[in-house]
Design goal:
Chain lengths: 259, 322
Amino acid sequence: MEILVCVKRVPDTSENEIELNGAGNDIDRDDLVYSVNEWDNYAVEEALQIVDKVGGGVTVISVGDDESEEVLRREMAMGADKGILLSDDAFEETDGRGIAAVLKAAVDKGNYDLILTGAQADDGAAQVGGMLAAMMDVPFASLVNTIEVDGDKLKIGREIEGGNQEMHEISMPCVLSIQTGINEPRYVGIRGIRKVASVEIPTMGAADLGVDAAAVAARVKRADYFLPDLGEGAEILEGDTDEIIEKLIELLKAKGGLK
Amino acid sequence: MAQIFSYILHKDGVVDDTALELAAAAKKIDAGATPNAIVVGSGDSLDAVCNEMVASYGEVWKVANDAITYPDAEMIRKLLVNILPADSILLFAHEHLGMDLAPGLSVKMDSAFVSDVVDVEGADGATLKLVRQEFGGAVSAHVTCDASQGAVMTMRPGAFAADESKGAGGQVVDKSAEAGDLAVNRKFLEIVEAEAGDVDITKSEVLVSCGRGIEDEENLEIAFDLAKAMGADVSCSRPIVDAKWLPKARQVGTSGQTVKPKVYLACGISGSFQHMGGIKGNPFIVAINKNPKAPIFQVADVGVVDDMLDFLPELTEKIEEL
């Protein structure tokens, strides 16, 4: 089975506090630590586990600037066979639909049975997988948390409310967006990264892909970032730890929090 | 402006809370509009849902189809493409059906798409001014959406105050005959119910809940020690279940359990909307987090800015001394 996994380089929220810049119109991008989008990492692990069972290859692909190469390399160190970078100035200001259109053009140049994305990324939009499937005219399932290969079909589970799971049979080719927790992504050591450090990663731009300006013209644009006025928020307990604990215990007693 | 339609979620004849939230959102997009509703499904309960919705929507488009015994996104997407005007503004709830259905629908309708909208600031011609959140709620963003060729949007459940005015005086329009071909390459099989856990946190009056701030599986002991001292149960947020440190039955959130305790101690939990969506009944929320900017402090009653790994053992010790 040939599997393509779409990955994105994002600010790592476990390594950074996301704050506004001085002008208050963008996040503070100085000294941000970037990594692969967490959901995408689960998707790559899932692809590797499927190929381990049924054979085939895993290609990782990203739309981004040159620095996205390090993310592709990291996923190749996990075991992905190939990496492809889709990079062009024309892609920089596009929206989710434009990203899906760029990926669609790259998918058309390959021959994939299964395409995986993360369920969402840093912007929480959860949109590219579903759009890509619609552009390819193939079935889609989101929030996937189990995959079982059954001949040319897959039996998949979707995470719905209350910890319940919605089971489907889905034909290939198809696009699935992967939820965290589907597996335990393998650790990537520095040695693994070194092994793939000199593997060539082909880069394709708009002309290579045949993507015109109209396909990446954004209809949805972020105007700015801001911090909303959220009213009072929590009463922050002040003082040294003993004082805070004393106040907290009184409050817990009053609210029925201590039995 | 184009017609606005809300997709109504319903189950066994019961309308989801988001139905009236979408009505409110539609009025924020266009105060003068009478938004319409779409009710899709099969069986006897469909008419009851439609009849309830005429109080809040102008036209309620009913689509009864025997193939749709379960709300399957792949089928419903095809159906909506077949019946809807091309330049419509379509509103869905941002939950598992909307997330499955809406992005692809926007492509098929050749419309703009915006997901997880938390507020609507208005419209300037065909340009919608919307508010979203990014980075797990750490920052908000103003977003513009060119809806001149239509728009598909998913709205965050709970973000819009339900429109309870119920003065629409609408009517049911049966569109069942226009559903068209619904053959798809994905087949719904069944719902697998969640496994019951060793503790039923939905019944707990006091919860010590831990998130990423626990850092390591071994540190869970700290939370269990505090819970024991307080007479509480231990619950958690999603990353703890993803890491397989605690079973799914202990996860609080929209994809986990809905809890209604009296007191909720959120320890090392950032406070994403998916997590907060699982907390009902307006409990007294105490947030303990070393990041003073964590979104949890906006929704908690009381906050302690400290590392839970330092603070919890000290709190446990003091409670044990009582």
